[in-house]
Amino acid sequence: MMFRRVERMAACVSDMKAKKMSVKSLITLVLIGLMSIIDVVVTESVTRPRGVSLTNEPFYRDSQWFTCLDGSRQIFKSQVNDDYCDCMDSSDEPGTSACPQGKFHCNNRGFKPKYIPSSRVNDGICDCCDASDEYKGPGATQCSNNCRELGRADLERRQQEIILMNQGFDVRQEYIKQGIEKKAEREESLKKLREEKEVADQLKDEKERLKQEAESPEKEAKDAHKAVWDAQQAVLREERDKQRANEAFDELDADRNGLITPDELADHKEFDSDGDGEVSEEEAKVTPEDPSPVPSPPEDVNEGDASEEDLDMGDHGDMNDEDEEDFADEDDEDEEFDDDLDEGELMEKYAKHRADYEKKKEVKGKGEDGEEMPEYDEATKKLIEVADAAREEFKEAEKQVNDLKKSIEDIEKLMNVDLGPQQEFEPLQKQCYEYTDREYTYKLCPFDKTSQRPKAGGSETQLGNWGQWEGPDENKYSKMKYTRGRNCWNGPDRSTLVILRCGLENKLVSASEPERCTYEFQFETPSLCTTKTDVETGEIDSHDEL
Ligand code: MAN
Questions:
Q1: Distant-in-sequence, close-in-space partners of 529: CB < 8 Å, separation ≥ 6
Q2: Looking at the predicted structure, is the pLDDT value of residue 121 above 80?
Q3: Which is higher by pLDDT, 85 or 372?
Q4: Segment holding 350, helix H or strand E
Q5: Which atom of ligand 1 is nearest to the CA of 461?
Q6: How far is the CA of 517 from the centre of ligand 1 (A)?
Q7: Which spans does this entry mark as compositional bias, Basic and acidic residues (predicted)?
Q8: φ, ψ for residue 2 (rounded to 5)?
Q9: Which of 516, 518, 520, 521 for mutating ligand 1's site (highest number of atoms within 8 Å of CB)?
Q10: Ligand 1 pocket check: which of 441, 494, 513 to mutate, most ligand atoms within 8 Å of Cβ?
Q11: C-beta of 488 in contact with ligand 1 (< 6 A)
Q12: Which pLDDT score, from 0 to 100, does residue 413 have?
C-alpha cells in the first residue's frame, strides 16, 4: 500500500513538472505526499487515538498507561477517549467533546491539518475537511472528505500567485532598467544645467556691472532735473502759503479793518482753545502775520461769492478728472460735510481734506499748482533709455539664473530620494494611486504625500509627507513612512505607514486608521517582486535581497 502511494506521488510530481509548476508548489506537494506516507506508516503500524496529531502520537503509544500531557496524572490507556474528562489539561479526550478545553486535531490529509475546539466534535457541523470531527450523529453521514479538492484548489491558487510573482519580477526588471536610465539622464541634465548656470552667473554679473554703469549718469541727470523743479516748487509753496493765510484772515476780518475782533470770531469755535464755549479776547488774538490757528480756505471759496454749497467736497477744487477718480473711493469713507456744521467746523474739515489732497498730489509727483514735473531734457531721456535697456538685460540675465537654479534644485530634490538599491521604485515617483472605502478616497503619491478626501465632498486632508523607508533591516523597502501630515485636533500630526508587497500592478489595495489619525495603507507593486521561480527546473533562479 505504501509503495502504491509513493508511485502515485512520483507520477503526480512528474505530471506537475510537465505542467511547468513552480518549486514552491512542488515542495508543497512533496510535503503533502511525505505526510501521507508517514501518516500511512504510523496509522498502519501504530494505533493513533482519534483527534491526536502526528507530533503528539508518541505520548499515546503505551498500550497500558497514559500520562496526562501536563504530567499531572497517570490513567489507564482505556480511559483515553472514553468520553470522560480525567486530565486537567483535557489531553485524555483528544477525540471527544468531553473536556471543555480540549482540542481536536483534524489530519485533513491532502490539505492543511488543523486543530478545532473539541466542543465541535460531533456537533453536526463539518469542521474538518476529512470529516473526522463528525463520526457519530447526523454529521457522520452528512460530512464527507473534500480535503483533496481543497488541496488542489489551494495548490492552483498558489501556482497562480507564483505565476503573477514571476510576471511581476519581469516588470521589476523593466523598472530597474527605467530607473537606471532615468538616474543617468538626471545626472546628465544636472551636469549640463550646472554648466549653463555657471555661464549664466557670469553673464548676470556682467549685466549687473553694465546696469550700474548706466544708472550712475542717469541718476545724476535725474537728480539735477529734480533739484531745479524742487527749487521752483519751494518758491511757489511759499507764495501760496502767504496767499492762503491772507485769504483766511480776510474771511474772518468781516469789516475789513485789518483786525479780527472777538465779535468776528465769536462764531468760530475752533479758536475756543480752552473749550469754555466762548472765544475770549486772548484766544482771538490773531493777525495776518500770525494766522496759524486759521485754516486755509479753499481757493474756490475765495474766488467770487463762495457759498457753503461750494464747499461740498464732491467737487475737489482744482483736481482734474483723473484726480477725482483716484480719490473718489475715499470720499465714500469721509464723513459727509453736512449743512448743519458751523463755519469753523467746516473750515477745519476742509483744511484736513485739503491737506490730504496736497499730500496725495505730492505722491502723484505733482507740483504746487498741480502741474506735473516737466519732462526730462533729451540728454537725460537718452540716459534713461540706456539705463532702462541695461536694467531689462540684467533682469533677463537674472531670470535665467533663477530659472536654472530652480531646475537644478528640482532635479536634486528628485535625486535625493532613495528609489531603491537598483532604482526599482523610480516609476512610482510622480504618480498617485487611490483607494476608496465607505467614507473616504485615500491617495498615495509615493515619495511625496498621502491624503484623504471625504466621498461626500469637502477638502483634502494631508495624512503625511514623504519621510523614509521604514521596513526592518533585512527588508527595508517593504514599508514607507509618511509623517508631518495635518495636525489632528487634540492629537498628533497625522501620519501614514504604507506596507508594500509584490503585485503585478501598482495598486493601493486598502487603507485603514488603526489609531486615530494614524493611517495604514497596503500597496502592491512589481517593484517588490524580488524572486523568480524557474518553471523548467522548479528552482528559484533570481533573488534580490533588498
Ligand atoms: C477627520 C479624518 C479622520 C480622523 C478625524 C480626527 O475626520 O481625518 O480620519 O480620525 O478627522 O478628528
A1: 165, 166, 167, 168, 169, 171, 172, 502, 503, 504
A2: yes
A3: 85
A4: helix 343-363
A5: 8
A6: 6
A7: 208-228, 236-247, 346-368
A8: -60, -40
A9: 516
A10: 513
A11: yes
A12: 93
Q: Angle 273-278-282 (CA atoms, 0-180°, nearest 5)? A: 60
Residue 335 is given by DSSP the state: P
Centre of ligand 1 from the C-alpha of residue 292, in Å: 68
Q: What is the best residue among 438, 441, 450, 461 to mutate for testing ligand 1's pocket, by most ligand atoms within 8 Å of CB?
A: 461
Number of DSSP helices (H) and strands (E) in the chain, helices first:
9, 14
**pLDDT exceeds 50 at position 329:** no
pLDDT tens track for 417-450: 999 999 999 999 999 999 999 999 999 999 999 9
pLDDT at 387: 98
* DSSP-derived 3-state class of residue 106: strand
Cα–ligand 1 centroid distance for 438 (angstroms): 14
**pLDDT of 8 over the 70 cut:** no
Residue 308 is given by DSSP the state: G
* One-letter amino acid for residue 496 of the chain: T
**pLDDT > 70? residue 353:** no
- Per-residue pLDDT tens over the stretch 250-293: 888 888 888 877 777 777 777 778 888 777 777 766 554 454 44
Q: Where is average pLDDT lowest: 20-34, 172-186, 414-428?
A: 20-34
Q: Round to whole Å and give the CA distance between 306 and 328.
A: 23
C-alpha cell belonging to residue 257? 479793518
Q: Is the pLDDT assigned to residue 27 strictly greater than 60?
A: no
The protein residue whose alpha carbon is closest to atom 4 in ligand 1 is 517
Q: Is the CB of 437 under 6 A from ligand 1?
A: no
Whether pLDDT at 379 is above 70: yes
Three-state DSSP at 325 gives helix
> Treating both helix axes as pointing N-terminal to C-terminal, what angle do 378-415 and 147-252 enclose, rounded to 10 degrees?
160
Q: Ligand 1 within 6 A of 487 CB?
A: no
Does the beta carbon of 3 lie inside 6 Å of ligand 1?
A: no
Q: Is the CB of 461 under 6 A from ligand 1?
A: yes
What is the model's pLDDT at position 338?
46
Q: Ligand 1 atom closest to Cα of 452?
A: 8
Residues 468, 173, 543, CA angle at the centre, nearest 5°?
80
Q: Is the CB of 490 under 6 A from ligand 1?
A: no
Q: Residue 513: CB within 6 Å of ligand 1?
A: yes
Reported confidence tier of residue 344, pLDDT bands at 50, 70, 90: low
Place of cell 505722491: 363
Kindly write down the DSSP assignment for every residue of 472-498, as one continuous string. -GGGGGGEEEEE--SBPTTS-B-EEEE
CA–CA separation, 99 and 494 (whole Å): 49
Q: What pLDDT score was predicted for residue 535? A: 58
> For atom 5 of ligand 1, which residue has the closest CA?
517
CA 414 / ligand 1 centre spacing (Å): 31
Q: Calculate the CA dihedral of residues 13, 18, 24, 26 and round it to 10 degrees.
A: 0
Q: What is the pLDDT of residues 56-67, one digit of tens each?
A: 999 999 999 999
